[in-house]
Design a protein that fits this description.
single chain; 294 residues; alpha/beta; 8-stranded mixed beta sheet; two-stranded antiparallel sheet; 9 helices; 34% helix; 18% strand
């Protein structure tokens, strides 16, 4: 049985995957909006390779059919190339039924990895990474202490595309607050237009432990847009997106309105669904507040 350092987080789409904890916590862990890795036991460190190997062997002996592996925690791609290569090789050796390896990825994780190295990881099964861009607006990114920029995010997504590793990008609806909502939406759309990711998802920023850290970044008070403001921001984002064949999902539990489609062919329909929610919310199938619990 695999022993985890909890809590462990994964993307919703990885619910059928074997969660392999190759790191603990997040090496950056300074983002003002994120409370995922603030517990004392979640201090960042890489797991020892022999422990990872034993977990892989244990999973293989369980008898379960394992076709997907997600490398946890929040910063697996921050590991050096040689360690990631060794982990992928162990998965290939002991879990031959695996067809996809995936991981979270901060844009900075790819600074010290060449396209050739990423291609090697792709050959070993690493075919999808979840990139938390959060925003394409440099002012928003600076205020939330993301440690990234429009350009660093674009560079990382471009490198992944060159290596033929699929990217699933996350943008946080409401992250700029009321004050920066418009530029957050427009510049996030511009980043996506240049990057053309394989998947794009939007989540509503939630602050379960309070707004204190975000307040400090927004002149003493962070004001999350209300439901109507979030719809307006989503409409602005969709209006400025010019994507060719990106699978779009806005169906996370935090969202009031569930949106699914492929951009660009479904752009007009998605815009219409947002417009209905804005004008006549009683006609839209909106989540109630109690349904948005995370």
């Amino acid at each position: 049985m695999i022993q985890y350092i909890e809590p462990v987080f994964r993307p919703p789409s990885e619910w059928k995957s074997l969660i392999l904890q190759v790191t603990n916590g997040c090496s950056w862990n300074k983002c003002r909006f994120c409370d995922m890795y603030t517990a004392p036991q979640k201090q960042y460190r890489a797991q020892k390779l022999d422990k990872i190997e034993q977990d892989i062997i244990s999973a293989g002996r369980s008898g379960a059919h394992i076709s997907r592996v997600f490398l946890a925690d929040g910063d697996a791609m921050g590991l050096p190339f040689a360690r990631l290569e060794a982990i992928c090789q162990l998965i290939k050796q002991h879990l031959p039924s695996v067809t996809r390896i995936s991981a979270y990825c901060l844009p900075r994780n790819l600074n010290n990895k060449s396209v050739e190295q990423l291609k090697r990881l792709r050959e070993l099964g690493l075919s999808l990474v979840y990139v938390g861009c959060e925003s394409g607006d440099d002012e928003v990114l600076e205020r939330i202490q993301k440690g990234e920029s429009f350009q660093s995010s674009l560079d990382a997504l471009t490198k992944l595309k060159q290596a033929e590793i699929k990217s699933s990008v996350m943008i946080l609806n409401g992250l700029g607050g009321k004050a920066l909502s418009r530029q957050h939406a427009i510049n996030s759309a511009e980043l996506m237009n240049l990057a053309q990711p394989d998947y794009l998802s939007t989540l509503v920023v939630t602050l379960p432990l309070g707004t204190e850290r975000m307040d400090g970044a927004f002149d003493g008070r962070f004001e999350l847009p209300d439901r109507q403001g979030l719809f307006e921001e989503m409409h602005l984002l969709l209006s400025h997106l010019n994507l060719q064949k990106t699978v779009f999902r806005s169906d996370h539990a935090s969202n009031y309105l569930v949106l699914k489609g492929v951009l660009g062919k479904d752009k007009a329909r998605l815009l219409h669904e947002v417009e209905v929610a804005m004008a006549t919310p009683e006609r839209a199938d909106l989540r109630q507040e109690w349904q948005r619990g995370l």
